[in-house]
Amino acid sequence: MNGRLQGGGARVETWTEERFFASRTEWQELLGRSDADPLFMSWDWQWCWWHHVGRRLGSELVLLAVRDDASRLLALAPLHLRRVSHRAGIQGMRLESLGTTFRTSSEVFTEYVDFIVDREYVAPAVAALARHLREDPRWGDLVVGNTFTDGIAARILRDELGDCLMRDVDPLEAHAVQLPERFDDYLKALPGSVRRKLWNQRSKIPNVILEYQHDAGDFLDRLDSFHRERWGRAHYQGVRRDFHLDFASSAASRGELLMSRLIVDGNTISTSYNIRVAGREYNLQAGFDNKISGYSPGYLHFGYSMERACADGVKVFDFLAGEGRNRQYKQDFQTHSRALITLQVLRAKHLSLLYRGHDLLRSFSNQLRRQAAS
Fold it and tell me: What average pLDDT does the segment 127-137 reach?
């Protein structure tokens, strides 16, 4: 059925905020028929982001829904439109993926961004969305952040808006591990040095307790205490805290929230904020006591979390994107990586010239630095 619709083509409608709020059931059903990420592209994450972050930015909601003639929902492209300042102080209107704020400090970081498209109707949905985006005169640049290089949003921007200047910027690398049915099998596949941190070091602390809690406020405070020690600042403050308190409460009501503490002799030595949905467990944030010596509380905690995930039949443990303080520690867990990119399409001619000149200058400067280094 891909690319063919009975009774005619696909049409695009724009949802209001009220329609967005009332759409959870329809949204989640479409998500289940798509290949979009079940956490970050879920109604719960996207609505929570709009409610706490998008409104604060003063953005206009641009939520595009594609339907066929029988009113079947084929696709959703969650976007927002806002005025931004480009280089040299030039103002313009940016159409951007919901959940992201390009080159602007974002209170909530959204990964695995894409459009949500019924896998049986990709071709007509892509054509309808591309046509609508081309015909919308309001935006000077269009940005989809933290998206897959082979995703549907990337396909639309690259293949359907090819007459505009396309920039691939801010690359990231996400890491996840495919879990076997038995945790023992996973341990056997690890290098000896990593296995010792995850498993063997348990013998050094026989009185360890893994405790799950539902008081998100208290948990975020504990996690922040580790952040202050390690990074010199709290993480869950202001809008970010409001978002995660709201989202964690929602996830808990669905049995998806896993906030855990590793406790030794009554003291919390590690915290892990995980979400489990659709057979995948995501580690949103972790923190540990960095004053401990002799064993690694963070690795030990990951070991307990992954052991439980295996026992519960979870297929993937997702460490998401980002690096450690000194190196990419996520590779230790025998993860597979996947590239993320931010795509920017510049349609306004003056913006195209501005960024083209900037990119050429940067490329030339980098070339000079390489020559000087050699």
Answer: 96
